[in-house]
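Our platform keeps sequence and structure together, in a single record for each protein. Such a record has a labelled line for the sequence and another for the backbone structure tokens. Nothing more is needed to write down the fold, since each code stands for a local backbone conformation. For reference, a complete record is included directly beneath this paragraph:
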Amino acid sequence: MKHFFNRRDSIVTEALDGLLRTTPPGRLARLDTYPDIKVVLRADWDTSKVAVVSGGGAGHEPSHAGFVGRGLLTAAVSGEIFASPSVEAVLTAIRAVTGAPGCLLVVKNYTGDRLNFGLAAERARAEGYRVEMVIVADDIALPDIPQPRGVAGTLFVHKIAGHHAEAGADLATVAAAARAAAADIVSLGVSLSSCSIPGQPFEARLGADEGELGLGIHGEPGVERIALLPAGEIVALMAERLGARLEEGAGHALLINNLGAVPPLEMSLIAEALLASPLGRDVRLVIGPAALMTALNMNGFSLSFLRLDEARAAALASPVEPLAWRPAVPTGEVVVLPAPAAPAADGIAASADATVEAIIRTACATLTGLEEELNRLDARAGDGDTGSTVATGARAIEARLGQLPLADAAATLHAIGAELGTAMGGSSGVLLSIFFTAAAKASSEGEDLPASLGAGLDRMIFYGGATPGARTMVDALAPALAALASGGLAAAAAAATAGAEATRAMATARAGRAAYVGARDLEGSPDPGAVAVARVFEALARR
């Protein structure tokens, strides 16, 4: 596993300073105790309200420093990666932010965190500070363990405590709300890989077809290994375990946490699978999916549920300052709006024009007859299907001749463009559809045929990106249309033929599939699209 870092011993301090530099000015600061004591705190804090302090090892970003700000944490204390901060670090944070109203410590139930935060609290009390501590033990992966781990459900406690503290509640009220919430949270995680710590060798403990259920946020092994299943089945398994611990029919808040490396696409799919499940029926508010308490680059996610009441719902929904926090969103059904209908057919009936019909038949017969030759030319630079592609389009147009409004040039051009866009396929089908559709618009606005076709060429060049000299059909079409306006079909045919022949000497293509082919494979071979254009103009000139 590869990582971006400078030195192992400076990863955390550099990352914290990066957070500070990219947060709006005036919101965050740090104490001048680097590198041993790493404390991020509110820059505007005046100790007039209860302070809410949390923290733990680094590697869980944006937790915990990312949640420092109005309405959430007052300060966050960071240790090294997956290592609890020291007693002195926690005590320093308490001293920095605690005034007469007191301080609440929110601690995840890991031994190092309990001991270091606990001793810091006792020492702070001895110094005269009012300090309370809430321990969060929300992980249900090991149901019989006397001390469950504290994982991402801790964020519910941060939010509820921060809300009450910001509202001016006293320490007893803030602590009581936090403890009650902590008792009503259940969480469970799953991962498809363990995490990798920068500067340490990575050892994969899971096979290619294995996942891990109930793992910790420090990369600890899960309670069991599971087969690699579709996402819906994994979510259903987690929902079964979580549902056994939830009160059926009670409203819940759900936090969907990315453990670090799950792509947003997959996280949204996971959210849909859960909210569409029976367990999702009781979810009233959802936070995420988002990376909120990660485990470095672990390819997994966790689900946390909190039983709601009116006060908790209000606390979770209240706005906060930290940018890393995701607002709690009420759940609901997917809103589906009717798509706008395609424009109705303009009602132009089929009409006859012997000259136009003869021109179209000649062009279609020419392209159909070139199928094998163009495929052979295309095999030098592409996948050998240019002839088949244009022949398919030609046959489709020929089959519709009796339904075309041949007496109306604009309508005929539009109908040809629509048919090619549907029947021809590939990029050439789209390009020719653009060509005829744009030409139709110009014709409907009063332009003559050469000018209308020129307008179609302009749009084809704009969208396709191929200009003359790029070794495409444009090398024959552009000079042909320029000559058509002044010299008629004979001049157009001569110009198209010269343009197609010029592509023989173009050793480098700048558009289309031939752009990926070396000069040796293109040498001496004309572009098949340009040849097709030239042959059509030659056939029309001979009529």
Remarks:
- The two ends are 69 Å apart (CA to CA).
- Residues 103 and 267 are 36 Å apart (CA to CA).
